[in-house]
Amino acid sequence: VQLEESGGGLVQAGGSLRLSCGASGRTSSTYAMAWFRQAPGKERELVATITSTRSTNYADSVKGRFTISRDDAKNTVYLQMNSLKPEDTAIYYCNLGYTYWGRGTQVTVSS
């Protein structure tokens, strides 16, 4: 399984970004998918998850601002990030089935 993230970049505080993660290989729509992030000097943390039945869960720090979704026909998971804050600056990683990882995409939010 290979995961490839895209959509990161530099944005001003209050702005929005949409991350995408495409999966290839032996994927399955039964897998849960998730986004994690890791800021400099900090541990990797869970941002959002979505199950095969579209049940979602979010870290308290992003609730109401971020939305995770998936398109199983395209083997893709998305993370819509609104009202971005400087503390959202991190490398964002896609995860499949709590097993497979992408290489990450940098998100930088300027104040």
Q: How would you sum up this structure, described in words?
A:
The chain is mainly beta. Helices cover 0% and strands 53% of the residues. The protein has no helices and 11 strands. Strands 2, 4, 5, 6, 9, 10 and 11 form a 7-stranded mixed sheet that branches. A 4-stranded antiparallel sheet has the order 1-3-8-7, with no helix packed on it. The model has no long low-confidence stretch (mean pLDDT 96).
Give the secondary structure arrangement, pairings included.
Elements: E1 2-6, E2 9-12, E3 17-24, E4 33-38, E5 45-50, E6 56-58, E7 66-71, E8 76-81, E9 90-96, E10 100-101, E11 105-110
Strand content: over 45%
Low-pLDDT stretches: none
Question: What's the end-to-end separation, in Å?
Answer: 37 Å
Helix content: under 10%
- Secondary structure: number of strands: 11
- Average pLDDT over all residues: 96
**Biggest β-sheet strands, sense, barrel:** 7 strands, mixed
Radius of gyration: 13 Å
What is the molecular shape? globular
Alpha plus pi helix count: 0
The class by helix and strand makeup works out as: mainly beta
